[in-house]
Every structure is written in C-alpha cells, then in structure tokens.
Write a structure and sequence with these properties.
By secondary structure, the protein is an all-alpha fold. It is built from ten helices and no strands.
C-alpha cells in the first residue's frame, strides 16, 4: 500500500496578511495622534505601534498625513455604517427626510456635535484640518474624499425642501449649508465656547428664520 502523504502546508494568505497590517497601521495612526498630537506622530512611531516595518508604510503611503487621512476615512466609514444599521436604503442614502426640515436639520447637526466631541474623532479631525491649511494637496484630498460628499447630502436635502415649498425659490442650497456648518466648525475649531445640542438647534433656527425682526402677523 502506498504510504500516506503528508498534508501540504497551507499557503499564506497575502491578502489577509496585508489587510491585518493595514488595519493595525490605521489603529496606530489614530491612537498616536490622539495620545501625542500630530506634530509628534511619526511614520516610525506608527510602524512601531502597528508592529510593521517602516517600508511597509511607505509602500502604501507617501507620508504620515496620507496615512492619517486614510485612517480617518476608514473610521468615518465605520461610524456611518453603524449609524445606518437598521435604516432602510432611502434613509441610509442621505439626510433624514421626515417632511419637517427644521427637525431633520437639528437631528443631523446634533449628531455632528456628538461626533466632533467624540475623542475618537476630535484629534484626527483637528490634525487633518490644520495640516490641510498648509498642505494644499492634503487639504484638497480631505475636501474631495470626506467634506464634499457630506456637504452634498445637505445640498440634496435642502434642494428637496425647496422643491417642496419649505425653502423659498432662489435660495442657493450650497450657501444655505454654509450657514449651518460654518458656525459649527468655527466654534469647534477655535474652542470659543462649548459645542452643544442647544447651539446646534439655534443654528437651525437662525439659518431658517434669520435674525431680522419678524413681520407682525396680519390682523394681529
């Protein structure tokens, strides 16, 4: 009888190994920028924390800012998936549309406040925002890959509201969006005052109704 042959060793799965390394690098980059700040975060430090060689990082990214951007986009994608869990396709595709524009905007801005105050997001968001000011290429990538898609969701919701008669004709949805997210970002970035749900609600009120005195109701 032929002797049983030894089982051949399993071929290592390079794809799975690469994904584990990539995940470890993402986690290391986000952890370091939170613990020691962007200036003291280095490619060497990320590699050491992730348990990979420095050349592994440089094979996939040209700089620490590129690593951090991809790590942040991955984190944002995970958070979006968690938020959409249990929602139907229409809700998951954009901002909520309950028919009550003010309530929908309050809900979204409150969620944004929570995210900006979340320690997982605060340090990397500040780092990318600041670095994007001096690094035009990084700033453009940050806008293109993260900020612009998020702003477009607002534009789409406000456009639908305008078509439904909830926003007056002639209003540019893109400018209207800036009335909502601009002040929120300013307060968060400069830490002028606490970022709260109450402040988010006020922004919606001011953006939808303005600050000029309202006309008296006819016949009152």
């Amino acid at each position: 009888m032929p002797e049983p042959q030894a089982a051949s060793p399993r071929t290592p799965d390079a794809t799975r190994r690469s994904e584990r390394s990539r995940r470890a690098i993402y986690d290391a980059a986000l952890a370091l920028v939170t613990e020691v700040g962007y200036a003291r975060t280095t490619v060497e430090g990320i590699a050491s924390r992730a348990g990979v060689g420095k050349q592994t990082i440089y094979r996939w990214w040209p700089s620490k800012s590129a690593v951090l951007l991809d790590a942040y986009l991955d984190l944002a994608g995970q958070a979006a998936a968690e938020a959409q869990d249990g929602q139907d396709g229409a809700e998951a595709a954009g901002l909520p549309d309950t028919g009550d524009l003010a309530a929908d905007l309050r809900a979204v801005l409150r969620a944004t406040v929570d995210e900006l105050n979340d320690p997982r997001f605060e340090a990397p968001t500040r780092a990318l925002t600041a670095e994007g000011v001096v690094d035009g290429e990084l700033g453009a990538r940050f806008v293109e890959r993260l900020l612009e898609p998020q702003l477009q969701l607002y534009v789409d919701r406000l456009t639908a509201a305008r078509e439904a008669g909830q926003v007056r004709d002639g209003v540019d949805p893109r400018v209207a969006v800036e009335l909502l997210v601009g002040p929120l970002t300013h307060r968060w970035l400069l830490r002028t005052r606490p970022l709260t749900h109450a402040y988010a609600d006020e922004l919606v009120e001011y953006a939808l109704h303005g600050i000029a005195p309202r006309q008296a109701v006819e016949g009152a």
